[in-house]
Amino acid sequence: MRVMCFRRDVLVVAMLALTAKPAAAESWYPANYATSGGEEICLNDGNHPVWMEDQGLIMTTVTSCCLRYFSHINQLSCVDNSNGITYTGTGDYYPLYQDSKCAQDCDIASGGACGGVLTDTSVPLFSSIGDCCANKMGHVSSSTIIYCYNIVPEICKH
């Protein structure tokens, strides 16, 4: 006859380990698919409609969700805003054709050359205001560009 002895605390822990559910996978989904007029962000709040799962619309990362559903907007903006972080721009420069000048990708309230935070991926970005002026403001005289900025005047002189 064989006698088996068990320690109750070990048995309970072992049973819990066998029955515990695996950690829930992240379930990122586009907010504007779930509710009419929703923002262009991805959510991971577990409140997605069941039909989204049924149709394979759930993504496992915020990056993949932003890329799949919001490829028309700046991906850094989508990821930051989806994670509850206010996107503040790249700090690069872009053309403001309507004003015949280049502006910095940052909140206007920050001052300086900030022209607002871009989300549109079709707008070209440049690492310096000089590059932006040289590449996108050739139709505008250097003096006009300098006047619009009132920053370092020699930047756009060529």
Summarize the structure.
This protein is of the alpha+beta class and 158 residues long.
Could you walk me through the main structural features you see in this protein, from its secondary elements to its overall organization?
With 158 residues, the protein is α+β, with helices and mostly antiparallel strands. The chain has 2 domains: 59 residues, no CATH class; 64 residues, no CATH class. It is built from 7 helices and 5 strands, in the order αβαβαααβββαα. Strands 3-4-5 form a 3-stranded mixed β-sheet. The protein has a two-stranded antiparallel ribbon with strand order 1-2. A hairpin with a 4-residue loop joins strand 3 and strand 4. Helix 4 crosses helix 5. The radius of gyration is 26 Å and the shape is elongated.
Cα separation of the termini? 99 Å
> What is the number of beta strands?
5
Bulk shape: elongated
Helix content: 25-40%
The number of helical runs is 7
Average pLDDT number: 77
N-to-C SSE string, H for helix and E for strand: HEHEHHHEEEHH
User: Beta-sheet strand percentage?
Assistant: 5-15%
Low-confidence blocks of residues: 1-6, 8-24, 150-158
Radius of gyration: 26 Å
* Largest sheet strand order: 3-4-5
What count of domains describes the coordinates?
A: 2
Class based on secondary structure composition and strand pairing: alpha+beta
Biggest sheet overview: 3 strands, mixed
Question: What keywords describe this structure?
Answer:
158 residues, alpha+beta, three-stranded mixed β-sheet, two-stranded antiparallel sheet, 5 strands, elongated, disordered N terminus
